Amino acid sequence: MRLKLRIELVPKTVWFSSLYKLLPRELWDSIRAEHIRTAGAKCEICGSPERPLFLHEVWKYDDEKHVQKLLRFQLLCRKCHWIKHIGLAKIKADRGELDYDELVKHFSKVNQCPKKQKPIYHGKLEDYDGEIRSGMLPLITEVDGVEYLTIAGTKKDLDFDQHVADAFEVWGERSKHKWTQDFGKYEKYIDKKRMKETVKMHHETIKRERQTKLELT
Ligand SMILES: [Zn+2]
């Protein structure tokens, strides 16, 4: 299914290893300025001119060879950008720093998908007298020897939560692997030593934050 605005979760094993983090700041700024000159100062997904606009790195994942390749850049508005990084957005929202509902609304508006899909059926399997058409999402569970059928909806009308769940499933699988990164023509500007240090530093920060959270709870 083609969505205009898709969730793109970066596998855990390549977190922080982005051009934004690794390129010298002046070079990043000039790439951004050049991109705005050619693409225009508006969100390339929803068309919003609202500032701030973020330069997003679009990656392609080869799930067999485990190569993460930089495809292109894309200028995004704040809301579209947070959708791309919905995992981090959720963390921010839980801290009260971001309006998650606003993002859900934006996602469903841009993609013209329902915010919440109405379940088609939930009950005993033997009581269901409709048919299971292609594209429906049926799930059969067994409780105390009785089979229950849930039809969450249809693939055509996937709601936000289901898109998030799908994205996290892909993310979980990809995060099991080490990825070779292909930065294309920007490869030569990356200081590999600095790259390792930057990535290590960020991971340690996360570990420390998690530790502090555990101590507090
Ligand atoms: Zn946008």
Main attributes?
single chain, 217 residues, alpha+beta, three-stranded mixed beta sheet, three-stranded antiparallel beta sheet, 7 helices, 6 strands, globular, binds zinc ion
Describe the structure.
By secondary structure, the protein is α+β, with helices and mostly antiparallel strands. The chain is built from 7 helices and 6 strands; from the N terminus they run H-H-E-E-H-H-H-E-E-E-H-E-H. Strand 1 and strand 2 form a beta hairpin. Helix 3 crosses helix 5. The two termini are 41 Å apart. The mean pLDDT is 88. The structure holds zinc ion (ZN). Zinc ion binds next to strand 2 and helix 3.
Major beta sheet, specifics? Answer: 3 strands, mixed
**Beta fraction of the residues?**
15-25%
Q: Could you tell me which ligands this complex binds, including any ions or cofactors?
A: zinc ion
Strand order of the largest sheet: 1-2-6
Overall pLDDT level: 88
Work out the radius of gyration. 21 Å
Please provide the count of β strands: 6
What is the string of SSEs from the N terminus onward?
A: HHEEHHHEEEHEH
Structural class: alpha+beta
Rounded to the nearest angstrom, the distance between the terminal CA atoms is: 41 Å
SSE layout:
Elements: H1 19-22, H2 25-39, E1 53-62, E2 67-77, H3 78-84, H4 86-94, H5 100-111, E3 121-124, E4 136-143, E5 146-154, H6 160-174, E6 180-182, H7 192-216
Helix pairs in contact: 3-5
The structure holds zinc ion.
The site of zinc ion has 8 residues, from strand 2 and helix 3.
